[in-house]
Amino acid sequence: MSPQVAGTSCSTTDGLVLEAEVATPDGAPRAAAVLCHPHPQAGGTMRSIVIGALFTALPQAGVTCLRFNFRGVEGSDGSYGEGVGEQLDVQAAIGELDGRVGAQLPFVLAGWSFGADLALATVVDRITSWFAVAPPLRMVPSFSAVAADPRPKLLALAEHDEIREPASVIDATSDWSATEIEVVKGASHFFVGRTDRLVDLAVAHIDRLTT
Fold first, then answer.
1. Distant-in-sequence, close-in-space partners of 68: CB < 8 Å, separation ≥ 6
2. 147: burial class by Cβ within 10 Å (0-12, 13-18, 19+)?
3. What is the CB-side half-sphere exposure of residue 95 using CA atoms within 13 A?
4. Per-residue pLDDT tens for 38-74?
5. CB atoms within 10 A of CB 204
6. CA 93 from centre of chain
7. What's the chain look like in SS3?
């Protein structure tokens, strides 16, 4: 059977309601993941290519996934929050999914581009690990909290990234704790034709958390 997808919403602490969807595996889940989409002002939505690929594939690997639209995007309340309000959005999404799956499951906070930066800027107890796809590392003032955090982080970078070269990201994160980096060969920042590799990396990462 295919994973079940249902619409839901996330309520932020500043009073907004965000549009969201949850995909549930056929059978008991082994992990949970929140997926954060690219920049709202560059056309990013929860249906953007990388987020869509992960949202489709991860439930087939036993992962309950929640994707959501940041404030001001499509059916979500509010307007662009300069990367500050969006941090409240990520926290709301974590709370919504946590309430559905309970505290026992490993919990991955994932994102692509702008969403990757917002994920890495969110350091709360419920997170087991981070999966950051092509983070520009420019969308929030500091990543010092996640850099020092002992929980595992996997950064998946594009070999031919147009936004920030992999070597620059590797250099910027060289002193981060518990951080693994994979460069996806042949990929641009948009990962057209290479989302399968991102899915493989995400599934392998979750395998390590659950075995």
1. 10, 18, 19, 20, 21, 34, 35, 36, 37, 46, 76, 89, 92, 93, 96
2. middle
3. 13
4. 999 999 999 999 999 999 999 999 999 999 999 999 9
5. 12
6. 11
7. CCCEEEEEEEECCCCCEEEEEEEECCCCCCEEEEEECCCHHHCCCCCCHHHHHHHHHHHHHCEEEEEECCCCCCCCCCCCCCCCHHHHHHHHHHHHHHHHHCCCCCEEEEEECHHHHHHHCCCCCCCCEEEEECCCCCCCCCCHHHHHCCCCEEEEEEEECCCCCHHHHHHHCCCCCCEEEEEEEEEECCCCCCHHHHHHHHHHHHHHHHC
The length of the chain in residues reads 211
Q: For each of the domains in the chain, give its residue range(s) and CATH number, in order of start.
A: 4-210 (3.40.50.1820)
Torsion angles phi and psi, residue 210, rounded to 5: -110, 5
Structure tokens at 129: 């690990």
Tokens (6 digits) for 72: 């001001």
pTM over 0.85: yes
Contact criterion met (CB below 8 Å) for 149 and 143: no
Q: Hunting for tokens 């930066």 — which residue is that? A: 117
With CA atoms as reference, report the closest residue to 65 among 53, 78, 77: 53
Inter-residue contact 72 to 40 (CB < 8 Å): yes
Interatomic CA distance for residues 65 and 86, integer angstroms: 19
Residue 169 pLDDT grade (very low, low, confident, very high; cuts 50, 70, 90): very high
Find where tokens 């560059």 sit: 42
Please give the pLDDT value at position 1.
Answer: 57
